[in-house]
Amino acid sequence: MLNPNDISWISPGDPAQQYLGWVFFNQSAWTFPLGLNPNFGLQLGNSIVYSDSIPLMALIFKIFSPSLPFQYFGIWLLACFVLQALLGLKLVELFSKNRWIQVLGASFFLSAPIFLYRLGFHNNLEAHWIILSAIYLNLKPFTHQNIFLQRLMWVVLVIVGELINFYLFAMVLALWFANLLDSWQHQTAFKPKWVLLEIFSMLIVVLLVGWQIGYFVASASISQGEYGISRVNLLSFFDPAGWSFLLPSISKAFSSYESFSYLGLGLISLMGYACLLLILIQIKVKATQRHQLSLIKLDNLLVHRFFLGMMLLLTCFALTNQLELGPITLHYSLPQWILYIGSIARQSSRLIWPLIYFLMLLILAIIIQLNSVRKTIFILTVALSIQIADTSKGWWPITFDLIMQKRPPFDASLADPAWPTFAKHYQEVLRIPAAAFSHQWETFATYAAKHHMATNSVYLARVDSHKLDAMNVGFQKAIATGQYNPNALYIVDDEKVLPVLMHLDSSRDLFARINGINVIAPGWKVCASCPPVAPELEIHQPIPQVELGKTIDFSAKGTGKYFLVGIGAWPTVGWGWSFPEGFGTWSEGDKAKLVLPLPDGAKTLTLQLRALVTATHPEQKVDVWVNGQLQQSLKLTQDSNNAVKIALPTKTPTQDYVTIELKLPNKVKPKDIGIGDDIRELAIGMVSGEVR
To answer: Which of 176-190, 214-228, 391-405, 575-589 has the lowest mean pLDDT?
Structure first.
């Protein structure tokens, strides 16, 4: 992983997003603001922030290694481990000067499941040392003489957090504000005017840095998703979710990947022991009226009351307004403005991390203060051994995968010799339609990066929805007129094949299916230096006429099959249609699409459907989407003769077809409900249709 030329350990999805975002950023000329990444997300207004490529590292390496293709994520991960250990040492050092205790205590931070959980996947979120630094600055006593150094360290920490990841930045900013208020309350030299000055200065610095690295390029769509889409279950701290050999997973405590908050069996054991010590100490205090426990004395904790209050606020934000205790959920309403702010940090469960680390430190501090040095070393050694050994069920497979798994290049499927030839004639690779995340986006982004082309085939944390809509409107006009950008190679999704064919100038533009990919190469057939593509690769799909009042037959013998999108695609993309049969065609997966040319005067489409329903599976839910808008939701309860009437949009010069998507949440395998051995995920059978 430390070899900058080795990318075989980088997997598809988020790791590919981080790597490819960096590659395009490094290949591009410097911009102003500095963090813009225009070729990765062409016309979408992207920056290095929204590919999660760790802007801090990207800016540094772009300065010293312009245009060189390499990865810095292995170096970054090593740095995160080193800094996690060092900050763990500094935190434990607040309560013990014994080096063995410091090392053992720091090892709990280094082996924390929430730290190891994202290793090699969310590389930017491995910077948990940022959180530890913020906790350290809150708890470390600063004298009047070095208070300026403390305030300067906060500024640097907030900026570094902003240059790594928004969520880490938000946590650090919150803990800075808490420390500012605590300092104002308990340091006489800290006057109100200095508090206001620091707030104003921090605001200016944060806005300036955010502007320069590109946070504001997608500001129109910064609030996306639903607040609480990922939240912490109150039992998540004790739910190993597959990370323990001894503890079973807790039912309903693990709702999503993001909700993982397991403490580890070793730390849970220490927590129980610390609670027992506190109970025994309280009994002893009542009996003797003498005992000093500086860490947990009320007057000592009140020195950090704003820090503790901020911990509580972050925890409440992570829990969201849907409190969960295992399978039990308590929902309470919040004002709309709070929900809007909450949706900015849609993965709200991440904000539980400061509490987990503070809780870890508190447990260690209690054990350190209430035991002798020798006994503390013994207890921590045993607990740490349990922690590492038991959680190895979770972190060892991750380690093995990162070290041993060798993945082919993301564009390995583009094996036809036509692809490098295309790259010599076009400067852009455009997906139709454009989306924030598309199937096989890595394939075409890698292809574009290899040949120094710009592309909209991307996966981004945030996309300006207005720019995305504008791009698709432009594609719609291009399809309707048959006029395409001569400098762009187009990758066309299956749902747009029929519309493209309706207006294609086949004497000028190449429309071919190469390596299973639909490609438009504008002007290819009239280009003297462009080699011909094999005729059998060209797309010549029939376009049957749709007439008012005439039945559309979706069986194997009918012409309706030409309107179905994704026949046989279910094993690859997880949705589509099965191959047509004598009665019609079954849907496969959780959705199915059809594209229909609109005849003049068309107002409605009535579909005749079958439904896979039985006594044990009594209904099929169907959500009908027309041109990307939800039109109706219905339930089918009989196995045949289900008539579904769909209102059609008005035909226009730029929209002379309709795309109908049927979302099918109740799809089921016939084998699972006792009907034969069929393992396809079926829901509805398309029999026929009629336009009126």
So the answer is: 214-228
